Amino acid sequence: LRLRQKVMGQLQEKYKSYRTPQKFMKAGVYPYFREITSMQGTEVTDIDGHKILMFGSNAYTGLPSDPRIIAASHAALDKYGTGCAGSRFLNGTLDLHIKLEKEIAKYIGKEDVLGYSTGFSVNEGVLSVVVGRGDYIICDDRDHASIVDGRRLSFATQLHYKHNDMEDLERVLAKLPHEAIKLIVVDGVFSMEGDLAKLPQIVELKHKYNCSVMVDEAHGIGVFGREGRGVCDHFGLTDEVDLIMGTFSKSLASIGGFIASDFDTINWLRHTSRTYIFSASNSPAATAAALEALHILQKEPERIEHLWDVTNYALKRFREEGFEIGDTESPIIPLYVHDVDKTFLVTKLAYDAGVFINPVIPPACAPQDTLVRFALMATHTKDQVDQAIEILKKIFMDMDLLKK
Ligand code: PMP
Prior knowledge:
Elements: H1 2-7, H2 10-15, H3 20-26, E1 43-45, E2 51-54, H4 67-80, H5 95-108, E3 112-116, H6 119-130, E4 136-140, H7 145-153, E5 157-161, H8 166-174, E6 182-187, H9 199-209, E7 212-216, H10 231-234, E8 243-247, E9 257-261, H11 263-272, H12 274-277, H13 284-299, H14 301-320, E10 332-336, H15 340-352, E11 355-356, E12 358-360, E13 371-375, H16 382-398
Parallel strand pairs: 2-11, 4-5, 4-6, 6-7, 7-8
Antiparallel strand pairs: 1-2, 3-9, 8-9, 10-13, 12-13
Helix pairs in contact: 4-13, 5-13, 6-7, 6-11, 8-9, 14-16
Bound molecules: 4'-deoxy-4'-aminopyridoxal-5'-phosphate.
4'-deoxy-4'-aminopyridoxal-5'-phosphate binds next to helix 6.
Protein backbone atom coordinates (compact mmCIF):
# COMPACT_ATOMS: atom_id res chain seq x y z
CA LEU A 1 0.00 0.00 0.00
CA ARG A 2 2.88 2.37 0.85
CA LEU A 3 4.38 1.71 -2.58
CA ARG A 4 1.05 2.49 -4.27
CA GLN A 5 0.70 5.73 -2.34
CA LYS A 6 4.21 6.70 -3.32
CA VAL A 7 3.57 6.38 -7.05
CA MET A 8 0.16 8.11 -6.99
CA GLY A 9 0.95 10.91 -9.46
CA GLN A 10 -1.32 12.69 -11.91
CA LEU A 11 -1.46 9.78 -14.34
CA GLN A 12 -2.23 7.23 -11.67
CA GLU A 13 -4.90 9.54 -10.32
CA LYS A 14 -6.44 9.77 -13.79
CA TYR A 15 -6.38 6.06 -14.60
CA LYS A 16 -7.35 4.56 -11.27
CA SER A 17 -11.00 4.87 -12.20
CA TYR A 18 -10.52 2.92 -15.45
CA ARG A 19 -11.83 -0.47 -14.40
CA THR A 20 -13.80 -1.61 -17.47
CA PRO A 21 -11.52 -4.62 -18.12
CA GLN A 22 -11.67 -5.62 -14.45
CA LYS A 23 -15.47 -5.49 -14.59
CA PHE A 24 -15.47 -8.08 -17.37
CA MET A 25 -12.74 -10.16 -15.69
CA LYS A 26 -14.85 -10.29 -12.54
CA ALA A 27 -17.82 -11.43 -14.57
CA GLY A 28 -15.60 -14.17 -16.05
CA VAL A 29 -16.13 -13.05 -19.67
CA TYR A 30 -12.96 -11.01 -20.39
CA PRO A 31 -12.15 -12.18 -23.94
CA TYR A 32 -8.65 -10.85 -24.67
CA PHE A 33 -5.09 -12.19 -24.54
CA ARG A 34 -6.17 -15.82 -24.50
CA GLU A 35 -2.91 -17.77 -24.42
CA ILE A 36 -2.22 -20.26 -27.19
CA THR A 37 0.60 -22.77 -26.87
CA SER A 38 0.61 -24.16 -30.43
CA MET A 39 0.80 -23.03 -34.06
CA GLN A 40 -1.97 -20.94 -35.63
CA GLY A 41 -3.72 -23.88 -37.31
CA THR A 42 -7.41 -24.74 -37.64
CA GLU A 43 -7.10 -26.31 -34.21
CA VAL A 44 -4.98 -24.72 -31.48
CA THR A 45 -4.04 -25.75 -27.95
CA ASP A 46 -4.65 -23.32 -25.13
CA ILE A 47 -2.72 -22.80 -21.91
CA ASP A 48 -4.85 -25.41 -20.11
CA GLY A 49 -4.10 -28.02 -22.77
CA HIS A 50 -7.58 -27.79 -24.34
CA LYS A 51 -7.95 -28.20 -28.09
CA ILE A 52 -9.93 -25.32 -29.61
CA LEU A 53 -11.22 -24.92 -33.17
CA MET A 54 -9.66 -21.70 -34.44
CA PHE A 55 -12.16 -19.46 -36.25
CA GLY A 56 -10.56 -16.23 -35.05
CA SER A 57 -7.50 -16.15 -37.28
CA ASN A 58 -6.58 -13.90 -40.20
CA ALA A 59 -4.42 -16.59 -41.82
CA TYR A 60 -6.90 -17.03 -44.68
CA THR A 61 -4.52 -19.16 -46.72
CA GLY A 62 -3.79 -21.38 -43.71
CA LEU A 63 -0.05 -21.06 -44.26
CA PRO A 64 1.59 -20.20 -40.89
CA SER A 65 2.24 -23.86 -40.10
CA ASP A 66 3.40 -24.81 -43.62
CA PRO A 67 6.72 -26.73 -43.35
CA ARG A 68 8.16 -25.03 -46.47
CA ILE A 69 7.68 -21.60 -44.90
CA ILE A 70 9.12 -22.73 -41.59
CA ALA A 71 12.16 -24.16 -43.44
CA ALA A 72 12.66 -20.90 -45.37
CA SER A 73 12.53 -18.98 -42.10
CA HIS A 74 15.08 -21.32 -40.51
CA ALA A 75 17.43 -20.91 -43.45
CA ALA A 76 17.21 -17.10 -43.20
CA LEU A 77 17.90 -17.25 -39.47
CA ASP A 78 20.98 -19.36 -40.09
CA LYS A 79 22.27 -17.08 -42.83
CA TYR A 80 21.38 -13.60 -41.52
CA GLY A 81 20.86 -14.03 -37.75
CA THR A 82 17.92 -12.82 -35.71
CA GLY A 83 17.70 -9.13 -36.57
CA CYS A 84 19.14 -6.36 -38.72
CA ALA A 85 19.76 -3.85 -35.92
CA GLY A 86 18.83 -0.81 -37.95
CA SER A 87 16.41 0.75 -40.37
CA ARG A 88 16.13 -0.01 -44.06
CA PHE A 89 17.45 3.51 -44.70
CA LEU A 90 20.81 2.86 -43.07
CA ASN A 91 22.28 -0.53 -42.16
CA GLY A 92 19.13 -2.69 -42.18
CA THR A 93 18.60 -3.51 -45.87
CA LEU A 94 19.21 -7.15 -46.85
CA ASP A 95 19.22 -8.57 -50.36
CA LEU A 96 16.25 -10.58 -49.07
CA HIS A 97 14.20 -7.38 -48.44
CA ILE A 98 14.89 -6.21 -52.00
CA LYS A 99 13.98 -9.59 -53.46
CA LEU A 100 10.66 -9.58 -51.59
CA GLU A 101 9.86 -6.00 -52.69
CA LYS A 102 10.61 -6.82 -56.33
CA GLU A 103 8.46 -9.95 -56.26
CA ILE A 104 5.57 -8.16 -54.54
CA ALA A 105 5.72 -5.36 -57.14
CA LYS A 106 5.47 -7.89 -59.96
CA TYR A 107 2.71 -9.87 -58.23
CA ILE A 108 0.59 -6.81 -57.37
CA GLY A 109 1.25 -5.17 -60.75
CA LYS A 110 2.85 -1.88 -59.71
CA GLU A 111 6.18 -0.31 -60.63
CA ASP A 112 7.71 -0.29 -57.17
CA VAL A 113 7.19 -1.44 -53.58
CA LEU A 114 8.46 -0.59 -50.10
CA GLY A 115 8.43 -3.20 -47.32
CA TYR A 116 7.73 -2.15 -43.71
CA SER A 117 7.95 -4.04 -40.41
CA THR A 118 4.17 -4.10 -39.81
CA GLY A 119 1.07 -3.38 -41.86
CA PHE A 120 0.03 -0.77 -39.29
CA SER A 121 3.24 1.17 -39.83
CA VAL A 122 2.62 1.15 -43.61
CA ASN A 123 -0.65 3.04 -43.27
CA GLU A 124 0.73 5.31 -40.59
CA GLY A 125 3.94 6.06 -42.47
CA VAL A 126 2.37 6.45 -45.93
CA LEU A 127 -0.73 8.50 -45.18
CA SER A 128 1.13 10.94 -42.95
CA VAL A 129 3.37 12.09 -45.80
CA VAL A 130 1.67 11.22 -49.10
CA VAL A 131 -0.78 14.09 -48.60
CA GLY A 132 0.02 17.37 -46.86
CA ARG A 133 -1.09 20.94 -46.29
CA GLY A 134 -3.61 22.10 -48.87
CA ASP A 135 -4.50 18.52 -49.84
CA TYR A 136 -7.56 16.48 -48.82
CA ILE A 137 -7.82 12.94 -47.49
CA ILE A 138 -11.23 11.26 -47.62
CA CYS A 139 -11.88 8.01 -45.73
CA ASP A 140 -14.73 5.53 -45.36
CA ASP A 141 -15.88 5.81 -41.73
CA ARG A 142 -15.16 2.11 -41.15
CA ASP A 143 -11.54 2.27 -42.33
CA HIS A 144 -9.00 0.45 -40.20
CA ALA A 145 -7.46 2.13 -37.12
CA SER A 146 -4.06 2.35 -38.85
CA ILE A 147 -5.63 4.42 -41.65
CA VAL A 148 -7.29 6.67 -39.09
CA ASP A 149 -3.99 7.20 -37.27
CA GLY A 150 -2.08 7.79 -40.50
CA ARG A 151 -4.51 10.43 -41.70
CA ARG A 152 -4.45 12.14 -38.30
CA LEU A 153 -0.69 12.56 -38.66
CA SER A 154 -0.96 14.21 -42.06
CA PHE A 155 -1.47 17.96 -42.48
CA ALA A 156 -4.14 17.39 -45.13
CA THR A 157 -7.77 18.35 -44.50
CA GLN A 158 -9.51 15.25 -43.15
CA LEU A 159 -12.92 14.20 -44.39
CA HIS A 160 -14.94 11.04 -44.26
CA TYR A 161 -18.10 9.52 -45.65
CA LYS A 162 -20.65 6.97 -44.45
CA HIS A 163 -19.54 3.37 -44.85
CA ASN A 164 -19.77 2.29 -48.50
CA ASP A 165 -22.25 5.11 -49.22
CA MET A 166 -21.28 6.38 -52.67
CA GLU A 167 -23.79 9.24 -52.60
CA ASP A 168 -22.24 10.47 -49.39
CA LEU A 169 -18.75 10.18 -50.91
CA GLU A 170 -19.89 12.18 -53.93
CA ARG A 171 -21.46 14.81 -51.65
CA VAL A 172 -18.06 15.24 -49.96
CA LEU A 173 -16.06 15.29 -53.22
CA ALA A 174 -18.35 17.74 -55.00
CA LYS A 175 -17.42 20.50 -52.53
CA LEU A 176 -13.65 20.20 -53.03
CA PRO A 177 -11.47 22.24 -55.42
CA HIS A 178 -10.97 20.38 -58.70
CA GLU A 179 -7.23 21.03 -58.88
CA ALA A 180 -6.41 20.14 -55.26
CA ILE A 181 -4.85 16.76 -54.40
CA LYS A 182 -7.63 14.56 -53.02
CA LEU A 183 -6.89 11.02 -51.80
CA ILE A 184 -9.71 8.55 -51.15
CA VAL A 185 -8.60 5.74 -48.81
CA VAL A 186 -10.55 2.51 -48.30
CA ASP A 187 -10.18 -1.00 -46.93
CA GLY A 188 -10.61 -3.35 -49.93
CA VAL A 189 -12.27 -5.86 -47.60
CA PHE A 190 -13.60 -4.35 -44.38
CA SER A 191 -11.89 -6.29 -41.64
CA MET A 192 -14.76 -6.73 -39.20
CA GLU A 193 -17.83 -6.82 -41.44
CA GLY A 194 -16.29 -8.72 -44.38
CA ASP A 195 -17.92 -6.55 -47.06
CA LEU A 196 -15.99 -5.08 -50.00
CA ALA A 197 -15.27 -1.49 -50.95
CA LYS A 198 -17.33 -0.40 -53.97
CA LEU A 199 -14.22 0.03 -56.02
CA PRO A 200 -15.81 0.39 -59.49
CA GLN A 201 -17.95 3.31 -58.28
CA ILE A 202 -15.03 4.83 -56.34
CA VAL A 203 -12.90 4.76 -59.49
CA GLU A 204 -15.72 6.45 -61.45
CA LEU A 205 -15.83 9.19 -58.82
CA LYS A 206 -12.04 9.42 -58.92
CA HIS A 207 -12.25 10.40 -62.59
CA LYS A 208 -15.25 12.66 -62.21
CA TYR A 209 -13.68 14.67 -59.36
CA ASN A 210 -9.98 14.38 -60.23
CA CYS A 211 -8.90 12.32 -57.18
CA SER A 212 -6.40 9.60 -56.28
CA VAL A 213 -7.25 6.30 -54.58
CA MET A 214 -5.50 4.09 -52.04
CA VAL A 215 -6.74 0.58 -51.17
CA ASP A 216 -5.76 -1.40 -48.06
CA GLU A 217 -5.55 -5.05 -49.18
CA ALA A 218 -4.79 -6.49 -45.71
CA HIS A 219 -7.77 -8.84 -46.02
CA GLY A 220 -7.91 -8.98 -49.81
CA ILE A 221 -4.57 -10.62 -50.57
CA GLY A 222 -4.69 -14.41 -50.62
CA VAL A 223 -8.48 -14.26 -50.89
CA PHE A 224 -9.60 -12.23 -53.93
CA GLY A 225 -8.24 -11.81 -57.44
CA ARG A 226 -6.01 -13.96 -59.61
CA GLU A 227 -3.71 -16.05 -57.38
CA GLY A 228 -4.92 -13.95 -54.45
CA ARG A 229 -3.72 -10.59 -55.79
CA GLY A 230 -6.52 -8.83 -53.93
CA VAL A 231 -9.66 -6.82 -54.43
CA CYS A 232 -8.13 -4.37 -56.94
CA ASP A 233 -7.23 -7.30 -59.17
CA HIS A 234 -10.65 -8.90 -58.55
CA PHE A 235 -12.31 -5.81 -60.03
CA GLY A 236 -9.64 -5.46 -62.75
CA LEU A 237 -8.79 -2.01 -61.38
CA THR A 238 -5.17 -2.32 -60.29
CA ASP A 239 -4.05 0.33 -62.80
CA GLU A 240 -6.75 2.73 -61.60
CA VAL A 241 -5.73 2.51 -57.94
CA ASP A 242 -2.79 4.78 -57.16
CA LEU A 243 -1.55 3.12 -53.98
CA ILE A 244 -2.05 -0.48 -52.86
CA MET A 245 -1.19 -1.44 -49.30
CA GLY A 246 -0.87 -5.00 -48.01
CA THR A 247 0.33 -6.91 -44.98
CA PHE A 248 2.41 -10.06 -44.55
CA SER A 249 0.65 -10.88 -41.27
CA LYS A 250 -2.48 -12.54 -42.63
CA SER A 251 -2.41 -14.59 -45.86
CA LEU A 252 1.38 -14.35 -46.11
CA ALA A 253 2.00 -16.16 -42.82
CA SER A 254 4.49 -13.70 -41.39
CA ILE A 255 4.69 -10.14 -40.14
CA GLY A 256 5.37 -6.91 -42.02
CA GLY A 257 3.63 -5.02 -44.78
CA PHE A 258 4.10 -3.12 -48.03
CA ILE A 259 3.03 -0.19 -50.14
CA ALA A 260 2.93 -0.56 -53.93
CA SER A 261 2.69 2.34 -56.36
CA ASP A 262 4.36 4.08 -59.30
CA PHE A 263 8.10 4.76 -59.27
CA ASP A 264 7.83 8.47 -58.37
CA THR A 265 5.41 8.05 -55.48
CA ILE A 266 7.55 5.26 -54.01
CA ASN A 267 10.68 7.40 -54.48
CA TRP A 268 8.99 10.10 -52.36
CA LEU A 269 7.90 7.62 -49.67
CA ARG A 270 11.29 5.89 -49.59
CA HIS A 271 12.87 9.19 -48.55
CA THR A 272 10.16 10.71 -46.33
CA SER A 273 8.06 7.96 -44.71
CA ARG A 274 9.00 8.08 -41.06
CA THR A 275 7.92 4.59 -39.96
CA TYR A 276 10.07 3.25 -42.80
CA ILE A 277 13.12 5.43 -42.14
CA PHE A 278 13.13 5.62 -38.35
CA SER A 279 12.17 2.05 -37.45
CA ALA A 280 14.19 -1.16 -37.70
CA SER A 281 13.74 -3.32 -40.79
CA ASN A 282 11.74 -6.52 -40.83
CA SER A 283 13.55 -9.56 -39.40
CA PRO A 284 15.27 -11.98 -41.81
CA ALA A 285 13.08 -14.90 -40.69
CA ALA A 286 9.86 -12.91 -41.19
CA THR A 287 11.00 -11.62 -44.59
CA ALA A 288 11.91 -15.11 -45.81
CA ALA A 289 8.57 -16.47 -44.56
CA ALA A 290 6.59 -13.85 -46.50
CA LEU A 291 8.64 -14.56 -49.64
CA GLU A 292 8.05 -18.30 -49.44
CA ALA A 293 4.33 -17.77 -48.74
CA LEU A 294 4.13 -15.54 -51.83
CA HIS A 295 5.65 -18.35 -53.93
CA ILE A 296 3.20 -20.92 -52.54
CA LEU A 297 0.24 -18.64 -53.16
CA GLN A 298 1.16 -18.42 -56.84
CA LYS A 299 2.02 -22.12 -57.17
CA GLU A 300 -1.08 -23.47 -55.43
CA PRO A 301 -4.23 -21.68 -56.58
CA GLU A 302 -6.20 -24.65 -55.25
CA ARG A 303 -5.69 -23.29 -51.72
CA ILE A 304 -7.78 -20.25 -52.56
CA GLU A 305 -10.33 -22.43 -54.33
CA HIS A 306 -10.69 -24.47 -51.15
CA LEU A 307 -10.94 -21.32 -49.04
CA TRP A 308 -13.90 -20.20 -51.19
CA ASP A 309 -15.49 -23.64 -51.14
CA VAL A 310 -15.48 -23.75 -47.34
CA THR A 311 -16.43 -20.04 -47.10
CA ASN A 312 -19.47 -20.45 -49.36
CA TYR A 313 -20.48 -23.51 -47.40
CA ALA A 314 -20.24 -21.62 -44.07
CA LEU A 315 -22.09 -18.56 -45.46
CA LYS A 316 -24.94 -20.75 -46.67
CA ARG A 317 -25.18 -22.68 -43.40
CA PHE A 318 -25.11 -19.57 -41.18
CA ARG A 319 -27.87 -18.00 -43.30
CA GLU A 320 -29.97 -21.16 -43.23
CA GLU A 321 -29.67 -21.42 -39.45
CA GLY A 322 -30.97 -17.86 -38.99
CA PHE A 323 -27.78 -16.03 -37.98
CA GLU A 324 -27.66 -12.35 -38.90
CA ILE A 325 -24.48 -12.04 -40.99
CA GLY A 326 -24.91 -8.68 -42.74
CA ASP A 327 -23.43 -7.97 -46.17
CA THR A 328 -20.28 -10.08 -45.99
CA GLU A 329 -18.86 -11.35 -49.26
CA SER A 330 -15.65 -12.84 -47.86
CA PRO A 331 -14.25 -15.45 -45.44
CA ILE A 332 -14.88 -12.90 -42.66
CA ILE A 333 -18.35 -13.73 -41.31
CA PRO A 334 -19.78 -11.31 -38.75
CA LEU A 335 -22.38 -12.85 -36.44
CA TYR A 336 -24.28 -9.83 -35.17
CA VAL A 337 -25.18 -9.65 -31.48
CA HIS A 338 -25.91 -5.89 -31.03
CA ASP A 339 -24.91 -5.73 -27.38
CA VAL A 340 -21.46 -5.56 -25.77
CA ASP A 341 -22.18 -7.74 -22.71
CA LYS A 342 -23.85 -10.40 -24.82
CA THR A 343 -20.99 -10.29 -27.35
CA PHE A 344 -18.51 -11.08 -24.58
CA LEU A 345 -20.77 -13.80 -23.22
CA VAL A 346 -21.12 -15.48 -26.64
CA THR A 347 -17.32 -15.35 -27.05
CA LYS A 348 -16.78 -16.96 -23.65
CA LEU A 349 -19.43 -19.67 -24.07
CA ALA A 350 -18.09 -20.52 -27.52
CA TYR A 351 -14.55 -20.73 -26.17
CA ASP A 352 -15.58 -23.00 -23.32
CA ALA A 353 -17.35 -25.23 -25.84
CA GLY A 354 -14.19 -25.36 -28.01
CA VAL A 355 -14.63 -22.58 -30.62
CA PHE A 356 -12.31 -19.58 -30.77
CA ILE A 357 -14.03 -16.49 -32.24
CA ASN A 358 -13.35 -12.81 -31.66
CA PRO A 359 -15.61 -10.19 -30.10
CA VAL A 360 -15.93 -6.91 -32.03
CA ILE A 361 -17.03 -3.89 -30.04
CA PRO A 362 -16.51 -0.11 -30.48
CA PRO A 363 -14.25 1.45 -31.69
CA ALA A 364 -13.84 -1.50 -34.09
CA CYS A 365 -17.55 -1.18 -35.03
CA ALA A 366 -20.49 1.15 -34.47
CA PRO A 367 -21.92 0.91 -30.91
CA GLN A 368 -25.17 -0.71 -32.07
CA ASP A 369 -23.37 -3.20 -34.35
CA THR A 370 -21.34 -5.39 -31.97
CA LEU A 371 -20.65 -8.86 -33.30
CA VAL A 372 -18.52 -11.95 -33.04
CA ARG A 373 -16.20 -12.41 -35.99
CA PHE A 374 -15.94 -15.90 -37.49
CA ALA A 375 -13.15 -16.24 -40.07
CA LEU A 376 -12.20 -19.11 -42.34
CA MET A 377 -8.89 -20.50 -43.51
CA ALA A 378 -8.10 -22.58 -46.59
CA THR A 379 -7.18 -25.45 -44.27
CA HIS A 380 -10.59 -25.65 -42.51
CA THR A 381 -12.76 -28.66 -43.33
CA LYS A 382 -16.53 -28.57 -43.75
CA ASP A 383 -16.73 -30.95 -40.81
CA GLN A 384 -14.97 -28.36 -38.60
CA VAL A 385 -17.39 -25.69 -39.86
CA ASP A 386 -20.34 -27.97 -39.00
CA GLN A 387 -18.97 -28.62 -35.50
CA ALA A 388 -18.56 -24.89 -34.86
CA ILE A 389 -21.99 -24.00 -36.22
CA GLU A 390 -23.69 -26.60 -34.01
CA ILE A 391 -22.00 -25.10 -30.94
CA LEU A 392 -22.76 -21.49 -31.95
CA LYS A 393 -26.33 -22.32 -32.90
CA LYS A 394 -27.07 -23.59 -29.41
CA ILE A 395 -25.51 -20.51 -27.78
CA PHE A 396 -27.32 -18.07 -30.09
CA MET A 397 -30.61 -19.92 -29.69
CA ASP A 398 -30.38 -19.95 -25.88
CA MET A 399 -29.73 -16.20 -25.97
CA ASP A 400 -32.55 -15.60 -28.44
CA LEU A 401 -30.18 -14.19 -31.06
CA LEU A 402 -31.33 -16.18 -34.10
CA LYS A 403 -33.85 -14.88 -36.61
CA LYS A 404 -37.19 -16.68 -36.35
N1 PMP B 1 -5.14 -2.74 -42.28
C1 PMP B 1 -6.16 -3.56 -41.96
C2 PMP B 1 -7.43 -3.44 -42.73
C3 PMP B 1 -6.01 -4.50 -40.94
O1 PMP B 1 -7.03 -5.30 -40.61
C4 PMP B 1 -4.78 -4.58 -40.25
C5 PMP B 1 -4.55 -5.59 -39.15
N2 PMP B 1 -5.62 -5.89 -38.34
C6 PMP B 1 -3.76 -3.70 -40.60
C7 PMP B 1 -3.97 -2.81 -41.62
C8 PMP B 1 -2.45 -3.73 -39.89
O2 PMP B 1 -1.68 -4.81 -40.29
P1 PMP B 1 -0.62 -5.53 -39.36
O3 PMP B 1 -1.36 -6.41 -38.40
O4 PMP B 1 0.21 -6.28 -40.33
O5 PMP B 1 0.15 -4.47 -38.65
